[in-house]
Fold these 3 entries.
Entry 1:
Amino acid sequence: VRRTVDILVWLGVAAMAIGLAPLPSSTPETGRRQAFSGLPASWPAPALMAGARFTAFGPLPAPPYPDDNPPSPVKAALGERLFNDPGLSASGQIACASCHNPELAFGDGLKTAFGHDRQRGRRNAPSLRAAAWRPLLFWDGRAASLETQAMAPIVDRREMAADPGDVIRRLNADPTYREAFKAAFGAKRVTQDDMARALAAYQRTLKPQASKWDRVLTRGGAVLDDQELLGLELFQGKAGCVNCHNGPLLSDGQFHNLGLSFYGRKLQDLGRYEVTGAPVDVGAFQTPSLRGVSRNGPYMHNGLFPTLEGVVNFYDAGGARPRPTAAQQADPLFPTTSPFLRPLGLTSEEKAALVAFLRTL
Ligand code: HEC
Ligand code: HEC
């Protein structure tokens, strides 16, 4: 590369010497490489739209934890045992790990999850590797902490379908559990709150797998190859991803409508609206973290896209823009797709570069 640049520079000098227009002294690739070679703070400013909530890219800090559940290895080990124990379900066959499989980035690799009696859930099981840092949990943000989240799948009729009283009785009947709870919490009896605390403590020990992006954050964009660099430039420029995917998690923690709510149709999912009842939230879902995203398909709250190529084609088209039927024209709840999405006009080379960049995360 350096030789080529030297030759181009000499040609430019020679051209100027004989009175021709100067050739550019660097190729676009070398310009991009220079611009992104350092740490994120030195990169060209991301192209943000009005209303975007931007936090700088950076390494993940230590996970926050609540005062009433400080971290401890004993508690986390107990939480891991509970997480893998199908005894927390009515059938005695479904554990948290059934849908959050450690070998599948703590997801299940399925479009939407199967639970009790092999009933199909309506949403995709997210990876839990970044759960400790999420401001709100679930695609619609209905749980505020891992402690309050933990009982939801245990009692959900389509997931573990258990009676919490039965689960706690079963744990109290097992002397090895009683002992482990005593070691972790100092109490004689197993309680529902302590079970939730242990599950949360375990999940706070999970973290995204080390990736090339971690090296970018400590050593600079110079560690990326040309294609990945182009992908980064698009991600925080022309493709607009950075408007919602930013900060250490590559998520703004906000709710946006990409047009995937299937409003008024069989697969309708109103997302955040189900929690807030606010019309602006119809079809809005919380921006997921993109850390480790290449291992986390199928994608979106409904697992609509099996591949990252599919996701990028979707964004290239400007997301989905469902049109109201005649009967829906006057419906105040008819969802509006985020103004941050618009057709991007990416070339096939640019789409491939975006995917290559996503794989570094
Ligand atoms: C039957 C499959 C299934 C089982 C079993 C299951 N989950 Fe989940 N989990 C899901 C699905 C699907 C979602 C997304 C649901 C939603 O957003 O409405 C989810 C979401 C979560 C989230 C939120 C993650 C985020 O980033 O928003 C956490 C945390 C979680 N589960 C932990 C657990 C724990 C702990 C257990 C066991 C007590 C468990 N899950 C059992 C399928 C399952
Ligand atoms: C308007 C905010 C916004 C913009 C802009 C945006 N995203 Fe997203 N992204 C989201 C939200 C919200 C979801 C989840 C939506 C859903 O499930 O309905 C998501 C989901 C994804 C997923 C799926 C992750 C998973 O675990 O399922 C990927 C991959 C992704 N985005 C990549 C991108 C890329 C690449 C771009 C730029 C071309 C981009 N996003 C632009 C908000 C945004």
Note: The pocket of heme C (ligand 1) is lined by residues 88, 94, 96, 98-100, 113, 115, 121, 123, 125-126, 128, 131, 134, 137-140, 146, 149-150, 153-154, 159-160, 199, 203 (CB under 6 Å).
Entry 2:
Amino acid sequence: MSLQSRTHKQIAERYKGNLGYYKKKLSWRIARICVGFLAIAGGLIGVVLFHKHGAKSFFNPGPISSKHARFGNDCERCHDPALAPAADATPANFWQVMGDRFQRGVTFKGVDRKCETCHTQHSFHEPSVVENRSCSACHLEHQGSSAMKAVASQSCASCHNNRDIMQASAQKGMQLPKSAFHLRAELAQGLVFDLPRPAEGYTQVFSSFASGHPEFQFAREKARDPNVLRFNHKRHLEEDIPLVNDKELTCNYCHQPGGDGRYMQKISFAANCQACHALQFDVRNPELTLPHGDPAAVRVFLQTLPSQYEALALKKGKTNPEEVRTFAATQMAQLRDSAHVGKDLERQIFFTTDSPKPQPEQTPPARSSFKGCAYCHEVKPSPPGPPLVTKPAQIDRWMPHGYFNHAKHASVSCKDCHEAAASQETPDILVPVKANCVSCHSPAGKVGSECILCHSYHATPPAATVAQSGATISFKQMLLGP
Ligand code: HEC
Ligand code: HEC
Ligand code: HEC
Ligand code: HEC
Ligand code: HEC
Ligand code: HEC
Ligand code: HEC
Ligand code: HEC
Ligand code: HEC
Ligand code: HEC
């Protein structure tokens, strides 16, 4: 400031008669030159020495996470010196890199390639993604020596809440073959209720689960349960339903959690229906039941009916062969009176949805007498063979794009999530809608609602994915572009 305030005249005054000023060997000035030289030389020697002998950890911006700690000091495992931008530092490159950084932030391409040397098959999310994120956008290193931080919802929202990206992805998705989109192997267990992908893909724009996250697809599209097994939840939860083992029929009588408690096991006839719907066909001999599960076996059973009665007689403690034969003959005759044995009995057994009610005086009173396979099943004639029973399609996974875990919700009543008691038809889908989850999984409900609570990111991909052209591209290409 003071310099600027001096006039040219004043400056000239200072050097008047002193034009050899810079030629004088002032000791102070010499010292300054020496210090400057030593500093530069020392720096250069330092660089050379460090390059040969120095500890790389000197440049380490922070501790490496626990899973990578084993090779944390081996910087080259993640940082490839050959890929450093300085390797080909031309002015053109410099401006390209600068422009790129301004638009997209720091590039991690070199690091990503290194991640992929150990973690193969991790770059894949959806084939319609227009530009994959760097691994380091979601998995932050050098943040501390514990486990890596959980992936933030913000990382997901950077695409899912960006209209331009999602529209571009929808466009790209429309040009891809259906086969390019496949369910994640880890989500698709057993029989999956896999609704067709919407024309625009799953590209709705939203910022969080509580606000904007789409209604679940089955509810949005009012889908129906394709199972042909007849079952009426409401009827079975009414008061007149008999007790089993002195207990009321509850959800858990039929629905038992699987091994890890995540999802429910399939229903089985033997464990869940037979106690009340034993396949009795002769009201006088309720002990005698048809085999379940195979129409051909039922036919064989009926063709060998006299010997079935003989076996029953033995079971009842009749040992005299004559007595056994008479018992069988009597039973056959009685059965012939109520139903026409032969094809007619078989037809009744397969096709009637109702059957003769047991007489009140008969013991033991049948709880719910047998009413023909068609009581529960879709049965179609198929002469000359036995009729065809359409196999019940029991779905294992209703929402394959999201995780769920029953065990983690053990404190919540089944009825709070499933409106089963109101359902009278199998086609009703009883799985809860989004509003149900939001009541807890939201800032207001005070339970976490991060995307990764319910979703994963990486798909387990097939070895290579078919690109638009039909040619196969590697995951590296998918991540880093062609
Ligand atoms: C497990 C892989 C891994 C190892 C090992 C590793 N780094 Fe990194 N490093 C990264 C990633 C990923 C980034 C990108 C920035 C981030 O995620 O925070 C990074 C960023 C950096 C940066 C830039 C810092 C910044 O804030 O921009 C430096 C400098 C660095 N690492 C030095 C080192 C040194 C020195 C070592 C060896 C002692 C090392 N790194 C070991 C993964 C690694
Ligand atoms: C030298 C091989 C190697 C490299 C390079 C490497 N990792 Fe790993 N990574 C591992 C191993 C080994 C594990 C532990 C796996 C396990 O326990 O199942 C791991 C675990 C992980 C995990 C799971 C961490 C957790 O806490 O559960 C993530 C995420 C991960 N790595 C991301 C990365 C990213 C991102 C990079 C690149 C910056 C990278 N890795 C580079 C070997 C590597
Ligand atoms: C958009 C965010 C995102 C990007 C980008 C991303 N990941 Fe992940 N990654 C995740 C999420 C979410 C998980 C699951 C974590 C969880 O469930 O706790 C995960 C899990 C992992 C795991 C551990 C579990 C497993 O599946 O083995 C590894 C290893 C991993 N990622 C490596 C990578 C590598 C390598 C890249 C880059 C090629 C990458 N990730 C890019 C979000 C991302
Ligand atoms: C690079 C952009 C991008 C990022 C980052 C991203 N997604 Fe996606 N995601 C997409 C696109 C595009 C689709 C639509 C796919 C289609 O066309 O059907 C999609 C679809 C989905 C779907 C529905 C389809 C399915 O297969 O399940 C889920 C769930 C999902 N993403 C979860 C996540 C989560 C969780 C994260 C964060 C860890 C995340 N996404 C990060 C681009 C991204
Ligand atoms: C007597 C056995 C029985 C009892 C008791 C029972 N269910 Fe079911 N449940 C079934 C059968 C059989 C199916 C498969 C047929 C169907 O989808 O309706 C089924 C299917 C379901 C499904 C998935 C299928 C869909 O369409 O959404 C849910 C959810 C369900 N039950 C919940 C419940 C709840 C909650 C209770 C208790 C209030 C309950 N069930 C009581 C037999 C039973
Ligand atoms: C917090 C809500 C919630 C509670 C509480 C709950 N469920 Fe579920 N249930 C779900 C969701 C979500 C699904 C769909 C899971 C899938 O298949 O993707 C489901 C699926 C089912 C299915 C279909 C098979 C399966 O596992 O996918 C049955 C059966 C079922 N639940 C029965 C029950 C019973 C019985 C109880 C009580 C012990 C119960 N649920 C408690 C939310 C809940
Ligand atoms: C009270 C209802 C009910 C009656 C009556 C009934 N079933 Fe079933 N059936 C079921 C249930 C529930 C399943 C699915 C669970 C299972 O396989 O145990 C099933 C499954 C089947 C299957 C498929 C088995 C498989 O391997 O998946 C066949 C075939 C079948 N039943 C045949 C019959 C025949 C034949 C009859 C008549 C003799 C009959 N059922 C009577 C309830 C019934
Ligand atoms: C605790 C006894 C009990 C159990 C267990 C039971 N039911 Fe029932 N079920 C009944 C009774 C009682 C009725 C009513 C009979 C009537 O009204 O004539 C009935 C009625 C039915 C009906 C006719 C419903 C209607 O809409 O009229 C079907 C179909 C049926 N049950 C199938 C099944 C299947 C499939 C299972 C096994 C998953 C099963 N039931 C388990 C007692 C039971
Ligand atoms: C509490 C659990 C939960 C949370 C938290 C959650 N989702 Fe979902 N999401 C689901 C379920 C369940 C579905 C339906 C899955 C199905 O239909 O198979 C779904 C569906 C989706 C879909 C497909 C949408 C469609 O059009 O059908 C996308 C994309 C998605 N979620 C992304 C996200 C992202 C991004 C976040 C974080 C901002 C997130 N989800 C948070 C449970 C959750
Ligand atoms: C009554 C409250 C309540 C409702 C309703 C509810 N949740 Fe949860 N949920 C919880 C609690 C509490 C946890 C446990 C959080 C924890 O363990 O940190 C949880 C955990 C979860 C988890 C994590 C499971 C794991 O493996 O760690 C998922 C996924 C989830 N819920 C999905 C759902 C979905 C989908 C719905 C709707 C169908 C739903 N929840 C409805 C309270 C609820």
Note: Residues 355-368, 462-482 have pLDDT under 50 and may be disordered.
Entry 3:
Amino acid sequence: MRAVIWLIVCLLPALAHANSSWTQSTPEAVASAALHEGKCTTCHTRMYGGDGSGIYTRDGRVLSTRLDLLQRVAACSAQVSAGWFPDEEAGVAAWLNARYYRFGE
Ligand code: HEC
């Protein structure tokens, strides 16, 4: 539990930074799209077809805040041993938020 709290405390500044005036064409967005493409689309595409983005827009999805999204990205990246740094996870979470989720503060 302690480790989880520590992780969240460490990630929050990166998340706040990554979300400030985020657009699709910043270098961070381009890098995040490439990370996501490299590690995250195989299963989602198998489950939902197309580019797999249906998993992010499906009915009944369980995420409801940016923190939920960041935690889900961190969990998935750990599960598949993506080897991402926290700022890369935050970047992908922000990219997914800008593109699909659109959670506010
Ligand atoms: C081994 C297969 C697999 C890989 C690879 C994978 N995911 Fe997932 N992902 C899943 C499954 C299965 C679910 C649905 C879990 C559920 O229904 O609760 C999911 C759900 C998600 C969701 C939540 C979707 C929603 O309901 O809003 C996010 C966000 C997500 N994945 C991000 C990622 C990211 C980021 C990566 C790359 C680091 C990744 N996933 C790689 C299997 C995978």
Note: Residues 5-10 have pLDDT under 50 and may be disordered.
